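Data deposition worksheet. Section B asks for the primary sequence of the deposited chain exactly as it was used as input, without tags or linkers unless they were present during the calculation. Section C holds the resulting structure in token form. Section D is free text for depositor observations; keep each observation to a single sentence. Incomplete worksheets are returned to the depositor.
Section A, Depositor: J.P.
Section B:
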Amino acid sequence: MLFSSLSFIGIFLPIVCLLYFVVTPKLRNYVLLGASILFYAWGEPVYVAVMLLTIVVNFVGALLMERFDRHKRLWLILTILADLGFLFYFKYFNFFAENLNALLHSHIDFVKVLMPIGISFYTFQAISYLVDVYRGDTPAQHDIFKLSLFICLFPQLIAGPIVKYNDIASQIDEREVNFDKVLCGVRRFIMGLSKKVLIANTLGAVADKIFEQAPDTIQTSVAWLGSVAYSLQLLFDFSGYSDMAIGLGLIFGFHIKENFNYPYISKSITEFWRRWHISLSSWFKEYLYIPLGGNRKGKKRQYLNLWIVFLCTGFWHGAAWNFIFWGIWHGLFIVLEKATGWHKETPLRWKRALQHIYTILVFVVGWVMFRSDNMGYALSYIGNMFGLVHPHDVLYSLAFYVDNIELIAFAAALLCCFPVFSHLQEMASRHRWLNILLNIWLIALLVLCIMSLASSTYNPFIYFRF
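Section C:
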């Protein structure tokens, strides 16, 4: 079930909210747990068992670490291997089997494995819980229902943000639910829904039309239009979903950390990754980069550790070579920036402008790899963007792909790349009439979203299968 679906907005969410606010505080966790399992089962009834097995394995593993302190490292390794085993089988088995066939020039038949929704997210959350228990940052949870709620809480279950157990443990035990939080959560949800439905879906349709064609049959200007449209679609699709998750968390009394901080205003790829998918970047930093040695073992080791992190980041996003090369691409520029100091702040305006242009070029080219079905397509498409491919049999000009609606969506997307709306919210909080106008505007956006969802079947979610 998608947050941006009429069944969620009109049926699931109102019923869950009604039950949640009617029952006593002691029963609210059980309402959320039941709703989360139902939410997951709605789209993945078979794979609920995988998620529940993951919960049981990590619950037992943490208790064993606590009970047998002398052997807790062994229990940590075994439990993490079990988690990664689930992830490897369901997400990467097809990839390795296909590549093994290609490498050996064989035609071994194998059963195609379907990947459970959200397995990458809840697996990483489970691993963070285990490591935090191992380090002594948090005690093992003795109530399996509370651990279950942490791992499968539906606002962030299938697409994050990736939540650390240490950040939310106290909120599972006790949290405050009041009108101000609910109102703030509803506002945040509508903002995220508007990003997803009104901007991402509109620009996604443009990107899909362009990326469905062979790279050598579109004009260079159209290739750039497709790459920019997809870059904006991806940002507002994923950040919109994160906004909805954070808003839902507030409605139920949870404070979920921010996951995006206007990444497209970055002046380096290093800064980009401090602003983009913050929960994933933080996870890799804390649970992979630092354990590998971070920057404590010299420059060469630091660069190697960064490469490993971004290789894993690419592979985490998808079991395909284009994702791996996308991770390597970002790792390359991260290392170059660290080696040259290019990422550092400068008082020179011309250099800041140059840094910003460079950063946009790097991530837009990277998103072409991310969007493409394979690296062959990606390289041809990128070649077209930079005039290295000469198009032939061109069917449509640039004007074919955009009309007034798309132009409005592009303008709104570019505006929302900057912290304009957050400043407006801050102003509205200090002026009563501005606050009323803001609420009217958000209601209007909600109505537009519902009308758009009711009249269109195009409602993809890019991170749904990550």
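Section D:
Residues 294 and 354 are 29 Å apart (CA to CA).
The chain has a mean pLDDT of 91.
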